[in-house]
Specification:
139 residues; mainly alpha; 434 Repressor (Amino-terminal Domain); 2 domains
């Protein structure tokens, strides 16, 4: 069963109207209707609203999620909501952070390559100096 259907069923089982739910949340009834809609452009309540709905309907959050939702998906939703990754601005920040992490990784690889290159250069220099010392001793 889809989340929209579960939200509607839980609301009806709690003997509440969409209007009553909208008043609890301080939103328009149409928003509640969209949560309960299976239409492609329908919206879903964020995890905080979902938790409040579960309490209002006297069910668990998991009861309101789509069938087959895995614990990892639920954890991911909770974490994203807690750190604000559902906000478009925060998503943009998260993308920037990911790019920075990739840059740091690339710099680390570059540093390691430079370290190897530097080591090779030092070895060559030492070989040249050693060769000159040997030539000096031989003459």
């Amino acid at each position: 069963m889809k989340m929209a259907e579960k939200l509607k069923l839980a609301r009806k089982n709690a003997k509440l109207t969409q209007e009553e739910v909208s008043q609890v949340f301080g939103i328009k009834r149409a928003s509640v209707s969209l949560w309960e809609s299976s239409q492609p452009k329908s919206t879903k309540p964020n995890i905080r609203k979902l938790a409040k709905l579960a309490k209002l309907y006297k069910v668990s959050v998991k009861d309101l999620l789509e069938d087959g939702a895995k614990d990892e998906e639920i954890d991911s939703l909770v974490i994203k909501e807690c750190i604000g990754l559902t906000d478009p601005t925060m998503l943009s920040i998260q993308e920037s952070l990911s790019a920075i992490q990739q840059d740091i990784h690339n710099l680390y690889i570059l540093y390691n390559n430079l370290e190897i290159t530097e080591t090779e250069a030092v070895k060559r220099t030492n070989k040249i100096l050693l060769k000159k010392q040997i030539e000096k001793l031989m003459s």
